[in-house]
Design brief:
Elements (H helix, E strand, L loop, with lengths): L9 E7 L1 E2 L11 E2 L6 H15 L8 E8 L7 H14 L2 E11 L6 H10 L3 E7 L3 H6 L6 H13 L5 E7 L6 H13 L4 E6 L7 H4 L8 H17 L3 E4 L2 E3 L4 H7 L3 E5 L4 E6 L2 E7 L3 H6 L3 E5 L2 H12 L6 E2 H8 L7 H9 L3 E4 L2 E4 L1 H5 L1 H6 L3
Parallel strand pairs: 1-4, 1-11, 2-3, 4-5, 5-6, 6-7, 7-8
Antiparallel strand pairs: 8-10, 9-10, 12-13, 13-14, 15-17, 16-17
Helix pairs in contact: 1-2, 2-3, 3-5, 6-8
Length: about 375
């Protein structure tokens, strides 16, 4: 079905499903902490989960690791250390692998950050969302602006020099001036990466059933986005993906967007594995209790139509897009398989082809869903 000459790079995603409180906009697989977290049992289940998948990636090395959630920083540094040690015992990790842990203000302090650093975490992604106290209350965050600033300072003091700050715009009653003020505060910390994305109302969230008042209209949101992009560019934060601006790009996320392979362990985690002439997706039990009982996976082999769409859904998020070689190497297909929708996208001025690269135009980025629909 597919013709691969080499396997894509392989990453490892580790899902930690617990949060202090579920945010009303969050549609990720996260569960409020109501009793003590079963750290030891969960680590044991994660390693058993990894072991059952090793046969699918025999002889390959891990290029990056990402602890996502939920809120991974609710785990103790000792638990993270034990888990990383267990992973290293089971599969090779390249020497300079990027190892990211998501953290939220309110769940960390200097001592905790030091513990994560000593355990082998070398990159943090801190969920700030806003520095404005009123905005934070409206979106249900457990921290205020001062706590967010202190968390960043504590992380830097602990030795982290590769830090992403997560920020949102389009918050209830937020103005363009307020959105830019958040960016200015974030930039003042001189971190290596800023993820700045629009608040969206997703199904299966509290906000979907109780839509907050004073959400900006499309014109205001577009105006905010353009102003923020201009400001970040002036501060030497290069936009390389729809919502990612960096002085140092995230290797793990780049692997996703370039349609690389990844193992996913943990409650609700997903994997994508290339093997010979197949691409397989795996998904794990979603609820932590069920996962602890049996971390089995369901699997399905992707069809050609699935692969064409999934590649475009990822690659066209990147400002640089993709080349013919990247498409063929990472999908196992010939570019001719998407010749018709590519030409239609070019005719619509949604897609550009220059210097051997296909990438979304500014109009294509704005109407990305319409662009992607051509590949369905």
């Amino acid at each position: 079905m597919f013709n691969f000459t080499t396997n894509p790079p392989l990453s490892l995603y580790i899902h930690i499903p617990w949060c202090v409180r579920k945010c009303p906009y969050c549609d990720f697989n996260s569960h409020e902490i109501r009793t003590d977290i079963p750290e030891a049992n969960y680590i044991k289940a994660l390693l058993a989960d990894l072991e059952q998948d090793l046969v699918r990636v025999s002889g390959r090395k891990i290029h990056s690791i990402f602890f996502g959630g939920g809120t991974p920083s609710v785990l103790s540094p000792e638990a993270i250390d034990n888990l990383l040690s267990g992973v290293r015992q089971r599969i090779p990790i390249i020497a300079d692998a990027e190892i990211t842990l998501e953290a939220n203000p309110g769940t960390v302090d200097h001592e905790r950050f030091q513990g994560f650093y000593q355990a082998g975490i070398n990159r943090l992604s801190i969920g700030i969302q806003s520095f404005d106290d009123d905005s934070l209350k409206k979106i249900g965050r457990i921290h205020d602006g001062l706590a967010a600033k202190k968390a960043i300072e504590a992380a830097q003091k602990a030795g982290f020099n590769n830090i992403n700050l997560d920020l949102m715009f389009g918050l209830p009653a937020q103005t363009e001036k307020m959105a830019l003020a958040d960016l200015e505060t974030a930039v003042s910390f001189e971190t290596t990466h800023i993820s700045w994305y629009q608040l969206t109302i997703e199904p299966n969230t509290l906000f979907y059933h109780q839509v907050p008042a004073n959400i900006g209209d499309d014109d205001l949101l577009w105006q905010m986005q353009m102003a923020g992009q201009k400001y970040l560019a002036a501060q030497n934060y290069k936009q390389y993906e729809i919502s990612a601006y960096a002085k140092q790009m995230c290797k793990h996320n780049l692997n996703y967007w370039k349609f690389g392979d990844y193992l996913g362990i943990g409650a609700g985690a997903h994997s994508k594995i290339t093997n010979l002439n197949t691409i397989t997706r795996l998904s794990k039990q979603r609820h932590p209790t069920t996962y602890l009982d049996t971390p089995i996976a369901t699997s399905n082999k992707l069809k050609i139509e699935d692969v064409k769409l999934e590649f475009m859904m990822n690659a066209l998020r990147l400002v640089e897009g993709f080349t013919k070689q990247e498409f063929e190497q990472n999908t196992g297909l010939k570019l001719a398989a998407v010749k018709t929708p590519i030409q239609e996208a070019i005719n619509n001025n949604w897609l550009l082809h220059k210097n051997g690269r296909f990438y979304a135009s500014s109009l294509g980025m704005r109407f990305l869903n319409d662009l992607l629909a051509l590949f369905m």
